[in-house]
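Following up on my earlier thread - several people asked me to post the actual chain instead of describing it. Fair enough. Here it is, all 103 residues.
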Amino acid sequence: MKKLKIKTGDTVRVTAGDHKGQEGKVQQVFLDKNKAIVEGVNMVSKHEKPSASNPQGGIKKKEAPIHISNLSLIDKNGDATRVGYRTENDKKVRFSKKSNEVI
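Reply from S.P.:
Thanks for posting it. Predicted structure:
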C-alpha cells in the first residue's frame, strides 16, 4: 500500500495551480488517486436536479480533489515544510524537516 505524507486533519498550503497560496484543512485523502480534498480550496459548481429531498434543485458549490504534489504541510510556526519520518521511543513519528519538530 502507498504511503502519503499528508493525512486527514493536516493544515496545508497550495503550492501550484489556480489556487496557489490558499490554505485549508485536509478533509479527505484518496490514496489510489494521490489526491486530497482541502476545505475551502478548489471550489467547483455542481448542478443538482430537483428531487424529493431537494425540491428546489440549483447550483451548489463543493470542494474538488487536488493533487497531493500541489500541497505543502504547514507546521506550528506557520511555515510550509516537507515531512520526514524517524523513530522515537520505538515509534515511527512524522516531523517537520524545516523546524525538526514532531508533527
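The longest strand covers residues 23-30. That should answer part of your original question.
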